[in-house]
Sequence to fold (236 residues):
Amino acid sequence: MTEHAAHNSSGLHAEVRPPGAGTAGDGRPGPSRSVTIGCAALALLLASATLWHLTATFLYLAPANPVSQKFNSQITGYMNPVFSQNWDLFAPNPIQDNVYIEARVQVTESGGQLDSPWVDLTAADIAEISHNPFPSHLNQNLLRRAAQFYDDTHDGQKGSSAQQQARMSAEYLMRAVLQRLGRDWDGRPILRVQVEEEQTPVSGPAWTGAPGQPQSGFTIMPWWNVSSSDYDGLLA
Fold:
């Protein structure tokens, strides 16, 4: 049909528009199909560019992880030098090691001294946390933070301030262990206590090239003498 107006069955005129022409709300012709498709494509392009920019910025600022390591060249190539940042999204960096704390005690035995077997204190904490909707902060963090405090203050630094921090961290870790072990072992008072720390790096996915079985590091603290004052303020 080539005419733009035709008669309907009631004799009224009805406007006939060419194919592809829309109609605005006030009766005027709307945008064509090609304009609508073009606007949708432009909106999709802008949304994709925004998503890529936010994702690249997040991975650039976040601590090293398998995704940022795999796409490091693409991320740094996009961010530098125009979008370069010099601050960290997360501070401090999240822990990337599994830390296990064990302890053993020394008691009097037949005129001599007896060393107890190693006790896995971290396993006991995990048992308290598992399936607990409201786990205690003490079970989640106390031992690990005490061991970390000890490691940070026993790095060979000199000076009275460093020595005071080292003594404080050793006492803090010992008291945290004694609170879990109690005052006696098999009915005999605890004379000394020793702590062992195992740190195992959390391995990444295989496609990152991370080792399948990372090597664990062990730190055995010296024997610490235990006195009744070491229990002051403890629940043990």
Q: What stands out?
A: Confidence is low (pLDDT under 50) at residues 1-10. Residues 33-61 form the longest helix (29 residues).
